[in-house]
Amino acid sequence: QSQFSDAIAEYQEALRLNPDNVKTKLSLATALLNLRREPEALQQLDGVLKLDPGNQTALEILRKLGGIKAR
Questions:
Q1: Angle of helix 22-34 relative to helix 56-65, nearest 10 degrees?
Q2: For residue 70, what is the DSSP state?
Q3: Which of 12, 28, 47, 71 has the fewest CB atoms within 10 Å around its CB?
Q4: How far apart are CA 34 and CA 15, in angstroms?
């Protein structure tokens, strides 16, 4: 668990410096999901889809979560 917590802190810092980095948002979402922090992960995935509406990775994660909502 601490590895995910450490990764989350690093991804958050990277996003502070470059808030529109899709790859970092996806990595952060994955780390958050591994810690069962789904609401925060969904927020990151929504951010990915705002920047890249057709992002297949984000869409697949949302499908697996049952989280496809009308946007």
A1: 20
A2: -
A3: 71
A4: 19
The pTM is what?
0.88
Would you say residue 68 has pLDDT above 70?
A: no
* Chain center to CA of 49: 10
DSSP character string of 11-60: HHHHHHH-TT-HHHHHHHHHHHHHTT-HHHHHHHHHHHHHH-TT-HHHHH
Cα distances (angstroms) measured from residue 65 to each of 39, 60, 71: 11, 9, 16
Which token pair is 22? 């899709």
